[in-house]
What does this fold into?
Amino acid sequence: MTRFVARRLTQAVAVVLTAYTLTFAAFNVLPADPVRIMMGPENGGDEARVAALRAEYGLDRPAVERYLDGLLDTLRGDFGTSFQTGRNVGATIAEAAPRTLALAGGALLVALPLGFLIAWSAAHTRHMWLRRLLGALPGLSLSVPTFWLGLVLLQAFSFGLPLFPARAEDGLAGLVLPAVTLAVPSSAFVAQVLLERLTVEMRQPYVDTARAKGASRARAVTAHALRNAAMPALTMIALLAGWLVSGSVVVETVFARNGLGRLIESAVTTRDLPMLQGLVVVATAVVTLLTLAVDMAHPLVDPRLRERAA
Amino acid sequence: MTFARRLGVVPSALVLLAAMAAAFAPALFSAADPLRGDLTERLLPPGAAHLFGTDELGRDVFARVVHGSAPSLQAAVIAVGIAVLAGSTIGLVAGTARGWLDDLVMRGVEVLLAVPSFLLILVIVAVLGPGTREVAVAVGVSAAAVFSRIMRAEVIRVRGSGYVEAAAVCGTGRPTVLLTHVLPNAAGPLTALATLELGNAILTVAAVSFLGFGAPPPAPEWGSLIAAGRPFLASAWWLTTVPGLVIVAVVLAVNHLGHVLRTRSERR
It folds into this structure.
């Protein structure tokens, strides 16, 4: 087991370092040039400014040298200095993270029970129309642009019925609408994966056996099918985390909340390459570590894997 | 497939047909100029003269949505095209070569999948600069990884089947086997995935354009159209709500057809 963990950890580190390398290559390898990317296509002609900027940010050193330095610094957890603000990238990310974590946490608080409920009810019900209706819900929610959903909610519950503030940075009231916006597609995601697995499991013979021995349909779903469906559903947690990071960009822009999403958006607008690189490394590390954690958790859910490991 | 589902294909196809017609021949739908407006007709709610109302410069929103369908849908189609071509080539190479090349390529794909997709798209946009075509490339690259996985799995699955062995025994060369056996078998799942990905691409392109990284302002694009209505959320609801409903309708139609295709390819 320890050897397995060690190997997977090494792999995770390799994935994160490759992500770093790929972004470095995207920003530095021909025809890309960090200074020209920074200045944008519209004002790239000024050679004197290009040279000045290059010297200012230390970009006149050879790319290989900068890459190796950056790699070592990244391994130490130092992501360099933002081109835009001149502040430490790691500190800026750490500062923005709690707001996005609150948003993602709020979204999950709504999405997980909701998605679970939809999948469970669809698997449990014997009314074909209800099952079809519930089964169609996730597809419907995933066809709605998240930014538009946010605007519509804002329109309805902030301007129409003044229930929630349109622009509240802090407090629970300001968190409700953004969290719900992010929760709608997330819950659809959860419901879709879980329902697909549950539908397969409900056709298995062990469900018939449980029913024949007198278990209610609800018990057959909850205690038997759900346990087997849970593991594949767990696998999507890492995917969901990546999705929440992606979704936060749009949601934080719509609701004017500061956080990681806003940081990503402004780093792209101002072409702040060190910031973008730091954000890619951190986001990839989070997704990779979550994938690892989920793989580790599999034996806890599935006793068969426990036996094999022992 | 249930009867109801088959019935749903007709409206979906109609919506898609209308969207495509709007992209190729916008004049068919709206004679109004999407860029020039009449200032005396500012912020009119939807009505008989202006189906979707008018914006703050008196421009007809319906005309803007119709003219916006060309860049928005084009970008999505190009993105899926890039994803299918690049992804299936990578998958084909990895699945056929096996060994170290396969390992290397698939590790690279794994990394691409570990970066949150929207972040990856925005990083590419930061490098390429804003614009409809740039956004299409970015969305395409980020979606390629999934296609390469499917293609590789198909190649490996088909390679193990009896008829490929039989073809090899008969002396058929590797390229011929790939072309006549592997590709046709992979076509079903790939088309289904491409259709589902198209719906996703429309949403993603709209989101990137909403953030302001698409075509520059006066040009109508579905995402930027909605973004432009943001200051009028409290007074002119139609500026944001109505174009969004159009996106929802098109994506629903595409996704529905994608699901039908997927069910069909899975049943085979």
About this structure: Chain B touches chain A at residues 4, 107-108, 110-112, 114-120, 122-127, 129, 199, 203, 206-207, 210-213, 223, 226, 229-230, 233-234, 237, 240-241, 244, 247-248, 251-252, 255-256, 259 (CB under 8 Å). Chain B has a mean pLDDT of 83.
